[in-house]
Amino acid sequence: MTTSNPPDGPDRPIEDLSTYLGAGITELFNALDKAMAQEVAPHGITNLEYDLLWYCMEGERTATELAQVLPVDGSRISRLVTGLVDRGLLRRRRLRSDRRIVMLSLTDEGRETTSGIFENMQRYYAMLTEEIGEEELRVFASVTARIVAKHAAVQGSE
What we know:
single chain, three-stranded antiparallel sheet, 7 helices, 3 strands, 63% helix, 8% strand
């Protein structure tokens, strides 16, 4: 008896597409995570440290704010911040109005490093998607946003 694999791509039956959603997301995440790791390694930082720096690009953040958007707990954020401060990529500033609150911001070197990594990854993403049409990318972005929103709604109701 011969076993046939389900067809790949858009012609796959919808049941198979749903079944393989997790595998496809995992493959995509792993591929992009490896590319990011190769990009950040020469700067002596990890993907998670880059994510923390990236969230600080728009302005000052607190460790609490970072813990809400990064997949780690507060104590891990504290260790990451200390390492990035020690490397001169991030700075701490206590609020005068409430000395308990520490604001985090990029140093000039941190901004330059983060911007450079971001630009290189944007070029890499553009290369990966150069044969994918704009409408397909819009659909992908829309579907991704809907899945993330549904996940957030389900998590919020628990």
